[in-house]
Amino acid sequence: MQQISRWGVLIIDIGIIIFSLALAHLLRFNFNIPTTEDYDNLLLGTPVMIVIRVFSFFIFKTYAGIILHTSIEDAQRIFWAVLSGSIFMATLGNLGFYKITGHFALPYSILIIDFLVSIFMLTAYRALVKILYIEFRSGKKDKKFVAIYGAGETGITTKTALERDMGNKFSVNAFFDDNSNFRKKRLLGVTIYPGKFLERYLLANQPQLLVISDNNISTDKKQEIFELCLKYNVKVRNVPPVEKWINGELSLQQIKEINIDDLLERDPIQLDWENIENQLKNKTILITGAAGSIGSEIARQVLRFHPKLLVLLDQAETPLYEIDIELSNTFSHLKHEVVIGDIRNYERMQHIFKSYRPDIVYHAAAYKHVPMMEANPSEAILTNISGTGITADLAKEFHVEKFVFVSTDKAVNPTNIMGASKRMAEIYVQSLNHFKENTNTNTKFITTRFGNVLGSNGSVIPLFKKQIASGGPVTVTHPEMTRYFMTIPEACQLVLEAGCMGKGGEIYVFDMGKSIKILDLAKSMIRLSGLELEKDIQITFTGLRPGEKLFEELLNPSETSLPTHHKKIMIATVREYNFEKIKSVVNKLTYLFDKQNNNELVKILKKYIPEYKSNNSIFEKLD
Fold first, then answer.
1. Hey, which bits of 372-480 come out as E strands?
2. Helices then strands (H, E): number in the chain?
3. How far apart are CA 56 and CA 38, in angstroms?
């Protein structure tokens, strides 16, 4: 079925208004025009009315809409075109005709009947064409049956978007909603069921797809829906929030398949936005490691609070260029600068601090990949310890208000070089906060500690995605391995909140939720990809890599935590160290870097971090 041209639409519309006028006359006179005079009036008044109608069609462009995709907007244009034409004829048209001939061109009763018939027929034939087109394009046998979870306005829009793309031949045959106001009702001809009937529906009807249109349902409820759909091999898609729709309209391409991030997400966190804004607005902010997963997201979050200047520092050229382009497009009205630099180079870092004079520093630069750092201890120590020391010292020297250090749960009872180097950096930053000297500075040093973030560079989820896409096998280290996970935005928001509330010297620990089995994560990702474990793809166990441990911890057994005003942020009570002693240790580690004697470097770490016990590593011999 081909699209009708604009002129074709206009010709059909003219035919309809001629028929409408004739029918109005017949109805007015009960299908029996009584006199020749009335018949003559019909011949005189009809051309005038047709001219007025055509003129109104041109003004409101009723012929310009695509009939195969007729919408409410098209019906509105028809209504205003017909109404304005009828009003014009009822006033100026009839009055002018009366002055010339001594009687009205068309009786007002005919105008009213014509108005109603015209609107009905002009909209009805468009709707009929659209229905015939839909039926022509999508045969009943090939339709994909779809259920929509959420019967509100977004659910209605979702149904429209699905059925508009008939190339996929979708047919919505059920709505689900827990709102009691929708009980035993129908929406757009489709029955609305309560959420508790979902499993029964999936079992009985076996739909190909379920779309979650309600963005306000709880995370627990969403996960429950996911699990039911995975159980019955039903694909799940998610409708993005309204603010992310393109030009205020939802398209099928925006209704994305559920991914593992959606399965692991938690309820949105509540932050003290006003307090954060008061701290960041009109300030110069420096972010180290700004091209990384955490640093780049901190940059996105910070720009929401209108800083005077955001300085993005990293040594990775290409990723830094990419985040520069992104922020320039998204926050074109705000000022930011990118700086290539290495936190391990004192002269370069001193120049950066002297040039920009930052008010707040978020220090996210670090080496974080456990097995790689286990094979390259000197690099981990030089970046994670010496680099952090240089940046923190300069923050104090240049009177930075707050220095927020991004650490990791791997610093707790470390079993690897990466974790031990981050723990030593924690000790340095915390002891520097308590160090008293005549510097006339009150820089507050704050540490934040959290676990794995979803989708970060080097994390397990991107690796699993690549392995699944290539047909497997999916490699899992150990069947019992567990990890804490947090979304990148959630982690960065908590970093901002902790940095805002910090008074100096604290190590903030984040509530990471439940620990998740990596094996269960791999299985869920395979099922989400529409594959069947053992049949389509295999899981293999590779064993612990150097430095890895089965379970991560957020606190050392000797540590406790104190609550804060935010339920997801706690303060770890840790042992305090003498800064001058720790400074000498860091200087010694930096000096030994040139000798490249890994055993000596690790020995020093183990001496000053007694809880550091190597696991599955060549450095176990030093314990």
1. 402-408, 444-450, 452-453, 474-476
2. 22, 22
3. 26
- Catalytic residue, candidates 396, 410, 422, 606: 410
Please give the order of strands across the beta sheet that includes 284-288.
Answer: 336-340, 309-314, 284-288, 360-363, 402-408, 444-450, 507-510, 569-573, 560-563
Contact predicate 489/302, CB 8 Å: no
Q: What is the largest CA-CA distance in the chain?
A: 118
Closest alpha carbon to 209 in 229, 231, 239, 227: 229
CA distance readout (Å), 619 to 300, 379, 386: 39, 16, 21
Q: What pLDDT score was predicted for residue 438?
A: 46
Phi-psi region of 612 (alpha: psi -120 to 50; beta: other; left: phi over 0): beta
Positive/negative CA dihedral, 47, 49, 54, 59: positive
Q: How far apart are CA 73 and CA 61, in angstroms?
A: 12
Topology annotation, domain 281-453+488-514+555-621: Rossmann fold (3.40.50)
CB 305 within 8 A of CB 280: yes
Asked about 410 being catalytic, the answer comes back as: yes
* Helix or strand (DSSP H, E) at 347: helix 346-356
Which pLDDT value is given to residue 2?
47
Q: Where in the chain is the domain with CATH 3.40.50.720?
A: 140-258, 281-453+488-514+555-621
Helix, strand or coil, per DSSP, at residue 292: coil
- Residue 389: other Cβ atoms inside 10 A: 24
CA 378 vs. chain centroid, Å, equals 38
Please state, in angstroms and rounded to a whole number, the distance separating the CA atoms of residues 486 and 62. 52
DSSP-assigned letter for residue 203:
H
Predicted local distance difference test score (pLDDT) of residue 586: 93
Q: How many residues does the chain have?
A: 623
Closest CA to 467 of 364, 573, 539: 539
Six-digit token pair at 98?
């009366």
Note the CATH number of domain 140-258. Answer: 3.40.50.720
Tokens, residue 474: 């999916």
Segments in the chain below pLDDT 70: 1-6, 32-44, 63-71, 93-105, 130-131, 133-143, 164-169, 242-254, 258-259, 261-269, 436-441, 455-458, 554-561
Buried b (16+ CB within 10 A) or exposed e, 529-554: beeeeeeebebeeeebbbbbbeebbb
